[in-house]
Structure to design on (976 residues):
């Protein structure tokens, strides 16, 4: 049962509801954490994904987000810090029929686990990777993370962080990830749609979920995701459509040879100048340019699927006999090449 | 050519010998490892017993002609049962001045040195650090010197085939091989067949190498410098089919065998590292055997992906050497907590840090036993020679599967690269490693609902069920956080942590119940001294014990394969003898364990030189400890 087949033959999959995907474990995130809505979104979306619970594996590393597997009524591994993509790679290679989710935060997947993330993406391992980006270390109580803005004052950076932040989508596109998307924890419907698209994708799907940590980094994305700000600050990406946003589509995105993608007043340009969104572009450069909009998350920010291209899934090129054939193979191997017999 | 060479060997007298140690040395690019390996292979086919010691630098090609670039290969062939590659060489083949200078100390006084006399110009001597030409200044007076212009003789003949310049020179190792094969009456047809196969893709190189081989052989026939040929009779062996095997290949084949014996799809996550990479190379060739290899981005991912594969139901392995083991430590701790089958193979090399990548050492024992965070016991197994690497891999898999635990399998650079004849096991006698995945619920909850508890243990082995994704109704979550006994739910309860720590330790301790009885060799009844060894010191200890016994000393030897848990009968054995000696290629790691566990005065004999013990070194230590006056002998 490959992912493609499951999505095209949903009749075989027993119908489920959100409750079927909830484990019996008490959810232990801080009250008000964005992780609750992400968990709900995934559990609401899964009944539509055409996958059985027993064929679903959720792998986490370490961090608040990485506790996710415990709350899912699926197979799950809560691993060690940063290594979830590597553990999940082993799961996916051992059984290509499984739907394997990787859940981690910005520290887990971009700091200690940055290397594994890059390689899972560039290999195009069949994984759905959800990175909850709250731009802070939560479980260790509030140090700056690899996505924290420069100058961020935290317990470990009382003078303000000196580090330049990573832009997760740029990193993923730099690794030539075949599916790259962004969503946020204030819009469950959007999350559900993006998660479904990510799961449907064959190969490595990378989704950044902007997530609020109401204890250590509250209002991190309020300028963008608060309901009152969304119209001005969220740039929805719609396949095949010119990229417009703002009241009455008054803003748009054009490609500029000097600055990559830039936001313009649509009144100042002709309709033809607007960038038409095409997530299937083979070359990642336009998606990359879009990922550079709002590097500090305080300007209009694209949301949706940046890139979705079809590439061979890791492990398919070099197939392996599924079942070891048995003892005769040992005999043949031991007697291959030069041997001699003493009577 | 065949007729001519075979016919005319009879023109020189032949002398029967029982044993010879030959050391081949040249530049890293001279192909000495290949030459040595092939001389070994034809000697194996001739029925000799043999042992080898490849001794090469970490640099792929250090500057030509310099001391750091010298690559050596020692092989001992014998008509008797031998266990070491020999303490000192009888014959040295030196392809350049650097090889001569670097390796002469490993040749016995009076031994034969066959020198490629081309390349002893002033510049070459300079590079090797010689002030004067050793071929002309009498410094080799204590040796039987055979000067052969190998390069010139090779190039002259090979050029006739149309091979040019440097390319022609490259065949000179085959000249040396031809000469050696003539000297020791090896069958030239075996060599020709091998060259034809190995170089089948390039006819010119194939013909050049065959020509060089034949020129070397003919040189032997005609030179007056070597008046006799020697022959080494086949060793009398038990009936069976034999092959020459090195440790890494034997271990890789053990992994392949374990896949067949268990019926489990097999996964190797690995990252290239000397001297373990050849296991990855070998396994990568066998997808038909149900083996998937994954060359990971780093050591940690290699181990972590193996944990993932084990969770999904594969028999998972990861192979590495000391520095990689250090990186895998946290992941091995996770595997201990998850209680999944996984074998971690450590081909030990000189350390710490990068240390001596191509040299051997046994200094990862304490890392294997203790090198993790928390109380994290796991079974540790060590191969003692190339020929038992296969069986050790199977035993490691057997324990991992039966007890749902990570197992560390230790080998080392010496075992990995050296080779010896191996009597092939009867495949029907190999153990059945098959296991069952959980298929149904195993516990009735308080509310009467049937559920699956991932940490409900087998009362005998204390192993937990292996429920793999894809199995309906057994969905469960496991992780590195402490789990409640039985249910596997997260638990921070103090009593539970104590109980789980004790259970994990008891499970591993129970592995010892499955061991074979230890075998004490030598004077097992009345020895004055017991030598306890583990790993690759087996050969040197066995030879040393025999030498001392034949000189009248009372010595016994026990060699450990299972280093954790230690065998249940070891305590009685080590307390039975007045003195206990533990030779190790480290600063006394096993002796520390034995002292602490059995409260005995185990004496460490230590060597950390990147090289195996010679039998003579251990022999001399035994005499010291026995109180014999060695100088009187």
């Amino acid at each position: 049962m490959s992912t493609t087949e499951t999505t095209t033959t949903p009749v075989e999959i027993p119908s489920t509801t959100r409750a079927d995907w909830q484990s019996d474990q008490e959810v232990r995130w801080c009250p008000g954490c964005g992780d609750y809505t992400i968990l709900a979104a995934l559990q609401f979306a899964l009944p539509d994904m055409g996958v059985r619970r027993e064929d679903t594996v959720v792998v986490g590393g370490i961090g608040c987000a990485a506790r996710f597997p415990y709350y899912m009524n699926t197979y799950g591994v809560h691993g060690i810090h940063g290594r979830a993509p590597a553990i999940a790679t082993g799961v996916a290679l051992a059984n290509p029929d499984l739907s394997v989710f990787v859940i981690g935060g910005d520290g887990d997947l971009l700091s200690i686990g940055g290397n594994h993330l890059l390689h899972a993406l560039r290999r195009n391992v069949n994984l759905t990777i959800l990175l909850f980006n709250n731009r802070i270390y939560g479980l260790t109580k509030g140090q700056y993370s690899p996505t924290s803005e420069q100058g961020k004052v935290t317990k470990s950076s009382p003078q303000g962080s000196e580090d330049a932040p990573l832009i997760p989508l740029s990193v993923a596109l730099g690794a030539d990830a075949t599916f790259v998307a962004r969503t946020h924890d204030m819009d469950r419907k959007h999350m559900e749609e993006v998660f479904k698209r990510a799961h449907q994708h064959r190969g490595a799907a990378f989704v950044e979920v902007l997530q609020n940590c109401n204890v250590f980094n509250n209002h991190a994305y309020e300028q963008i995701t608060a309901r009152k700000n969304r119209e001005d600050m969220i740039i929805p990406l719609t396949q095949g459509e010119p990229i417009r946003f703002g009241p009455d589509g008054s803003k748009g995105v054009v490609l500029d040879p000097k600055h990559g993608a830039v936001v313009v007043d649509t009144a100042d340009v002709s309709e033809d100048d607007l960038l038409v969104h095409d997530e299937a572009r083979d070359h990642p450069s336009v998606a990359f340019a879009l990922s550079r909009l709002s590097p500090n998350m305080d300007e209009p920010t694209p949301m949706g699927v940046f890139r979705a291209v079809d590439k061979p899934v890791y492990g398919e090129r070099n197939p392996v006999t599924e079942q070891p054939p048995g003892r005769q193979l040992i005999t043949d191997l031991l007697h291959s090449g030069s041997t001699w017999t003493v009577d | 050519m065949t007729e001519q060479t075979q016919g005319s060997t009879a023109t020189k007298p032949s002398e029967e010998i029982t044993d010879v140690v030959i050391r081949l040395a040249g530049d890293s690019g001279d192909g000495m490892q290949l030459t040595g390996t092939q001389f070994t292979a034809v000697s194996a086919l001739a029925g000799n017993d043999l042992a080898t010691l490849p001794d090469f630098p970490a640099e792929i090609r250090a500057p030509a002609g310099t001391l750091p670039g010298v690559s050596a290969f020692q092989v001992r062939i014998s008509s008797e049962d031998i266990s070491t590659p020999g303490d000192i060489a009888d014959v040295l083949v030196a392809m350049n001045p650097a090889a001569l200078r670097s390796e002469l100390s490993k040749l016995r006084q009076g031994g034969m040195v066959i020198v490629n006399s081309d390349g002893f110009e002033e510049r070459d001597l300079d590079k090797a650090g010689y002030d004067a030409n050793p071929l002309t200044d009498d410094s080799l007076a204590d040796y039987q010197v055979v000067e052969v212009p190998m390069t010139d003789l090779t190039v002259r003949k090979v050029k006739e085939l149309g091979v040019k310049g440097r390319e022609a020179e490259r065949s000179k190792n085959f000249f040396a091989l031809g000469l050696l094969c003539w000297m020791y009456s090896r069958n030239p047809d075996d060599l020709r067949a091998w060259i034809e196969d190995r170089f089948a893709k390039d006819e010119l190189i194939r013909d050049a190498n065959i020509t060089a081989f034949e020129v070397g052989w003919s040189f032997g026939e005609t030179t007056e410098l070597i008046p006799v040929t020697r022959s080494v009779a086949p060793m009398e062996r038990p009936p069976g089919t034999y092959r020459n095997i090195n440790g890494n290949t034997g271990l890789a084949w053990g992994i392949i065998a374990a896949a067949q014996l268990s019926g489990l799809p097999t996964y190797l996550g690995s990252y290239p590292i000397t001297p373990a990479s050849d296991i990855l190379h070998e396994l990568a060739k066998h997808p038909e055997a149900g083996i998937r290899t994954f060359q990971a981005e780093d050591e940690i991912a290699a181990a972590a992906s193996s944990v993932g594969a084990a969770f999904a139901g594969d028999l998972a392995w990861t192979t590495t050497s000391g520095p990689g083991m250090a990186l895998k430590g946290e992941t091995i701790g996770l595997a201990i907590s998850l209680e999944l089958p996984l074998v971690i193979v450590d081909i030990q090399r000189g350390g710490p840090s990068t240390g001596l990548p191509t040299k051997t050492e046994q200094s990862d024992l304490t890392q294997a036993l203790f090198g993790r965070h928390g109380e994290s016991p796991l079974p540790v197994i060590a191969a003692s020679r190339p020929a038992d690497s296969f069986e050790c891999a199977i035993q490691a898999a057997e324990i991992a599967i039966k007890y749902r635990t990570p197992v560390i399998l230790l080998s080392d650079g010496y075992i990995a690269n050296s080779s010896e004849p191996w009597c092939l096991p009867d495949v029907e006698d190999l153990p059945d490693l098959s296991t069952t995945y959980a298929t149904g619920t195993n516990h009735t909850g308080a509310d009467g609902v049937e559920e699956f508890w991932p940490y409900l243990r087998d009362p005998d082995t204390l192993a937990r069920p292996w429920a793999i994704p894809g199995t309906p109704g057994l969905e469960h979550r496991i992780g590195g956080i402490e789990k409640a006994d039985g249910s596997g739910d997260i638990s921070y309860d103090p009593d539970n942590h104590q109980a789980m720590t004790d259970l994990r330790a008891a499970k591993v301790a129970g592995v010892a119940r499955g061991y074979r009885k230890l075998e004490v060799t030598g004077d097992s009844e009345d020895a004055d001294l017991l030598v306890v060894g583990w790993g690759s010191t087996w050969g040197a200890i066995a030879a040393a014990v025999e030498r001392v016994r034949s000189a009248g000393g009372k010595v016994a030897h026990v060699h450990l394969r299972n280093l954790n848990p230690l065998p249940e009968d070891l305590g009685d054995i080590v307390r039975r003898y007045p003195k206990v000696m533990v030779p190790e290629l480290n600063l006394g790691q096993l002796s520390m364990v034995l002292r602490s566990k059995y409260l005995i005065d185990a004496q460490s004999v230590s060597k950390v030189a990147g090289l195996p013990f010679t039998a003579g070194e251990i022999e001399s230590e035994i005499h010291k400890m026995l109180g014999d006056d060695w100088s009187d002998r």
